Structures are given as C-alpha cells and as structure tokens.
Amino acid sequence: MKPCENRIAILCLALALATWVSADGTAPAPAAPQKAAKTSPKPAQKASRPKKKAEKFKPTRPFVEGEVLVQFKDGPDSASAVEANRKAGGTVVKVLDKLRLALVQLPPNADTVKAVETYRRQPGVVTAEPNYVVSALKAPIKKPAPKTPGGKPLKK
Predict the structure, then answer these.
(1) Closest CA to 91 of 74, 115, 113
(2) Any alpha helices (H) in 28-94, and if so which ranges?
C-alpha cells in the first residue's frame, strides 16, 4: 500500500471505531428491531419548482463596480430577463453569445453585490456574477522564428 492509502485506511478505521464505541468505552447495545409503521398513501401533490435560497453573496476577488454578468434561462430578450432587469435596475449593454452571458450595467451608486443577489433570486436567471477583473498570469511565449536546416532564419 502507498503511504496515502495507509492514511486513508487508518482514518476510515478510526471513524468506524469512533462511531461504534460509546463515550464510556463500551460497545453500544444492539438496537431492538422496529416495526414498520403503516402509513396511508398521501395524495399526489403538484410538482413545484424548488425555491431559490436567499444566500448571502460574497465576492471572491476584485470586480468592476456597477457591472454584472448574467446568464438568462431564455436569453437576454425574454420576458423573464426584462422583469429581472427591472427588479435589479439593470440594463443589458452587451450580449456575449458564445458564453451565453449578458453584460448588465447598473445605475450609478447601485450596490453591485445586492444586484447580484437580486438577479440570483429571479426565476429566469441561471447565474449572476459581478464582472470580475482578470489579468494574464504570464506574458505569452514567443516562438522562435523557423530556421532552415542549415540554421539560418527563413526569409519572407
């Protein structure tokens, strides 16, 4: 066994023992078998769409104030997108078709984090994120010019 596999096996064994042995060091008594309770079948309920949780959004890195990237379920021109923009106070500035995203501009002095939370609660929104600032980690690698078999550069 590899060292990593040994650690995993030891942790699994420790977890199994911890759940098996009680606080006073003795093994717990086996539980008496329980009879299954008879329940009457419940009437069929309408399949309802689960409500989105109102979770607090926390940005993970710097972003452009007043700009949100939103992915709408039915596209940025749909009725649900128009309603979501009305509730958040945003205006679609640019549509990024290949990424299926819309760049939304918020009114001046609008709270970007609250707008993201508002968009995420809307039924026609798949996802919403602030327009994060990104940068390249390294400069692109410049490939050397092709050379002839004799080692001289090719002329164009």
Answers:
(1) 115
(2) 79-88
Q: What domains can be seen in the chain, in order of their start residue?
A: 63-132 (3.30.70.80)
Question: Which residues, at least 6 apart from 93, have a Cβ–Cβ distance to it below 8 Å?
Answer: 103, 104, 105
Q: Taking 50 as the threshold, does the pLDDT of residue 149 lie above it? A: yes
| Number of helical (H) and strand (E) elements in the chain, helices listed first | 3, 4
pTM above 0.70, yes or no: no
Non-local CB neighbours of 72 within 8 Å, separated by 6+ positions: 78, 80, 81, 84, 102, 124, 125, 126
Tokens of 99: 């990424």
Residue pair 59/130 in contact by the 8 Å Cβ criterion: yes
Cα–Cα distance measured from residue 101 to residue 19, given in angstroms and rounded to the nearest whole number: 48
